[in-house]
Amino acid sequence: MSRLRFYQFAVVAGFVLLLEGLCLAGVIDKVTMPPPHIIVRDLFRMIIAGRYFADIGKSLANVLLAFSSAYIFGVVAGTILHGYKTARDVLDPLFATYYAIPVFAFYPLFIVIFGLGDGPQVLIGFLLAVVAVIVTTLNGLDRVPLVLKKTAQVNGLNPLQTALRITLPFCAPYLLTAAKLALAYAFIGVIGSEFIMARSGMGYEISYAYTNFDNATMYPLILLILLFSIAANSLLSHWESVLLARRGQK
Amino acid sequence: MVAAQVTLRGVTKVFPAGAGGEGVHALGPIDIEIRKGEFFAVVGPSGCGKSTLLELIAGLTAPTLGKIEFEGRAIRENVPDGVGVVFQEDACFSWLNVRENVEFGLRQKNIGTDEKGRRVAAVIDMMGLRDFSESYPAQLSGGMRQRVCIARTIVAEPRLILLDEPFGALDQQTRLLMGDEVLRLWRATGATVFLITHALDEAAMLADRIVVMSARPGKAVDLIETGWPRERDSRIVERENFGAITSRLWKTLREESLKTMGRMGGGA
What we know:
heterodimer, A: mainly alpha, MetI-like fold, 0% strand, B: alpha/beta, Rossmann fold, 2 domains, six-stranded mixed β-sheet, four-stranded antiparallel β-sheet, 7 helices, 10 strands, 34% helix, 23% strand
């Protein structure tokens, strides 16, 4: 284990132990939050009993759909926008202030337009994720050395070939950062939407458990979301480390 | 008399003005003929338009006035087939290993997989990179990375190789050795080499003919024939007339460099 990994593990373990101590000592009362070991136990019980599998599957599928559509659209839009300076200048103020827009406030409107299905939740996940991907893609493309673009010209590559073979591969570390951001925003968008107005999904079940003081359901589901996002993020971070090491940047 | 492979007639480059400014007259008018198979070098003071000249010949930019021809066909903002360029900056693709970098030079060529593999292996061997063919650029020294870029250029078997200060970022020892390598490749490939350099000894050692450019806007102010035999290497610097050539280069270049420094307010 590298020193960095050890420190990361130590911080998380320290935080969990602190929570455990505070819960067992009664500083945090049982109604507010059970000790972490109880949450883990409840999660195992929930998984063994097969409860909420349909909700978990639905939420993850929607997160994946929001993430992948935002990622593909964001990378393509960022790449195209990079070639049009005026369009980029026009959109820059929107990108700079985008995250001040309360996207969740549009949820009722999306329900009116797209109905009560999963569409509005996926759309909110998409809207939250897509701008982060566009901005990070533009940031990466800004850093492509001019000499690589000239090399593309010398090798007779057209703009699409240049993007696919030179500029986007050069930006791969930035594109992985974009993926990490998009994933986090997709989780927030989809699970958050399920909280507000849905009849199923992990967010809905957490919200339902919350209003019924059902800590044995709420905290294990929160932990499960945390585990999913940590696992996906770790995978992307590992991939990023491999790429950066290959390029002598780590 | 050997036929001209590249001809420049009255070539001028003026970069358009920014908001409220004047255009920059970077180059010309300049007339040059580069003979097929020769090693041609260009030296000149900083900012005289040497790299612009190379980019014009490569078809990376178009002249404002004048005409450039490669093998009888006009070049205008399109890189002609048969022209390869090696830049001063590190142009290795950091996400590809050495073999893949070299292979990239053949991506746009309509060649069979076996032939591609054979040519890539041959060039990797020729450049002394066989033991590093699976290494990534980050694992190589600056000199080796530049060899990868040269290999990627010559694998396409260009008839004209343009070198834009390719050893500028290397130490003196490596530069001399790379000079030997380039001379060896020049003889082996039979290609014409056009070298831009600011190093007078490098130009005098490598080239058959050397053009000295004036301060901006760059024009040809002197043309020197070195008269070296085709079979040569860096030991040519021991020859008696090597000093005479570099002296003549410096005499012209000193005056032009002083003009540049005067313009910059440096004085002399």
